[in-house]
Specification:
Number of strands: 4
Distance between the termini: 22 Å
Strand order of the largest sheet: 1-2
Radius of gyration: 15 Å
Number of helices: 5
Shape: globular
Helix content: 40-55%
Order of helices and strands: HHHEEEHEH
Largest sheet: 2 strands, antiparallel
Length: 128
């Protein structure tokens, strides 16, 4: 799994796309919740020796990308995490058909819990 995550990591930003294997396709975008989840899982798994330690470098590149691309300082001195897909899944007729168009057209918002939680966990792992 770690090798597959690394394979689809954007080399320039260290982040991951909403549709992982179609990074260059029009409409696809770098998405923060999957990026945070991948960074967290790679950091923790490498720390616990479940995967090769070299994956920590993959995770660190991703974490740097998260800070540079998704963390925004607000005027009230708080921060926000941006570019979180509000929902995505499969099932239901005809709503969640699993198509490329479905995944890139779902709403994107700031501070969705699916982005906040993994970002906090990744931040904790960065300091372990």
């Amino acid at each position: 799994m770690a090798a597959g995550i690394e394979e689809v990591q954007n080399p320039k930003t260290g982040l991951w796309y909403q549709v992982l294997d179609l990074g260059n396709k029009e409409g696809n975008y770098l998405e923060s919740s999957c990026s945070c989840m991948f960074v967290y899982s790679l950091l923790k798994a490498s720390r616990l020796n479940y995967i090769d330690k070299r994956y920590r470098l993959v995770a660190e590149k991703g974490y740097d990308g998260i800070l540079k691309n998704f963390i925004k300082e607000n005027v009230d001195e708080t921060i926000s995490i941006t570019s979180v897909c509000s929902v995505a899944g499969l099932g239901g007729t005809p709503y969640r058909d699993g198509s490329y168009d479905y995944y890139i057209k779902e709403p994107v918002r700031d501070n969705d819990p699916k982005g906040i939680g993994p970002f906090i966990l990744a931040s904790i792992e960065m300091n372990n």
